[in-house]
Amino acid sequence: MKFATFNDSRIGIVIDSAIVDVTEANLGINAVTAQGLLNGIMENFDSLRTKLDEIALSGSRVPVSSVKLGPPVPRPGKIVAMAVNYMENGALKEKPPIHAFLKSRNAIIGPGDTIILPKSEANVFHHEAELGVVIGKEGTNIAVESAFDHVFGYMNFIDVSARGLSGGNFFWNKSWDTFAPIGPYIVTKNEIADPQALPIKLTVNGVLRQELSTSDMAHNVAACIAWISSITTLDPGDIIATGTNHQGLGAIQDDDVIEMEISGLGSLKVNVRDDLKRQWPTEIDSTFADRMAGRA
Q: Please, what are the domains in the chain?
């Protein structure tokens, strides 16, 4: 099942190229916001699934192209982003230590929205294509073996990054408004056979930049969930961004169009705006890639 937000505050189920509005459905959830309704659906998905299936089959459908899709998790409780969590196509011989940072939830934007590059004096701005994991069930000290009991679904996540601000300060480099495009929808976990075998592609202006697989993760999804939950409770609506392979990173700049696609999770397309009209080389940043792979 695929869930999306649309037209500012509606929740819908996506079926092929259509969407069915479930915002007013009698689901027994007392919520006043789209995020509250979504959290209720996620927490109670097992008991609501039959009813949601019936609504999806019998409800009024409108073309997805006729609505404005929003970020499928409009106001996450928190975004935990894994850092240096790929083996760089096997270039790293040992797993990096598990590591993460918090990214501001105000960074969230959705399909068709615009990344706005701040006027701060960054060396460059990069895209990072990542698998986003959406938590559906609260948990603390979650065992690796039961990690997926707490997962609701998956989505595309672009971790936009400034480089060179304050010597690599994660908050300053990662948490600018608009620096977390997600979407176009959440795909429930039952539709994804193996989250560790998903091909990911990202293009800029139609030119391939990143091509990777989640099989290259140093610490897999279950391990990330277990580790994060040993530090902080995970709640419904939280997002885990699982990291990226840095071998295809490159600069983003004014008027760029970025499109990301993970197999089975749809395509996320966003724009870039830079009021300063700064320019960087348009090819892959090989110097950065070499550094992340330990070659420099």
A: 2-70 (no CATH), 79-292 (3.90.850.10)
Residue 190: alpha-carbon gap to chain centroid: 18
Backbone angles phi, psi at 159, to 5 degrees: -90, 95
Please tell me the distance from the alpha carbon of residue 186 to that of residue 236, in angstroms, as a whole number: 13
Between 40-44, 90-94, 134-138, 154-158, the lowest mean confidence (pLDDT) is in 90-94
Residues contacting residue 169 through CB under 8 Å, at least 6 positions apart: none
d(CA 51, CA 187): 18
Per DSSP bridges, beta strands 2-6 and 180-188 are antiparallel
Average per-residue pLDDT in the chain? 97
DSSP assignments along 242-267, one per residue: ----GGG-BB--TT-EEEEEETTS-E
At residue 257, the 3 state secondary structure works out as: strand
Six token digits for residue 169: 């300060």
DSSP run (H or E) holding 188: strand 180-188
What's the rounded Cα separation, in Å, for the pair 4 and 69? 7
Distance CA 262, CA 212 (A): 10
If DSSP codes are grouped into helix, strand and coil, which group holds residue 55? Answer: helix
Sign of CA dihedral 32, 12, 79, 8: negative
Please give the Cα distance from 155 to 1 (Å, whole number).
Answer: 12
Query: The whole model's pTM is what?
Result: 0.97
Q: Residue 15: name the closest of 54, 46, 43, 48 by CA.
A: 54
Using the predicted structure, report yes or no on whether residue 167 has a pLDDT greater than 80.
no
DSSP string, 121-163: --SEEE--EEEEEEE-S-BSS--GGGGGGGEEEEEEEE--EEE
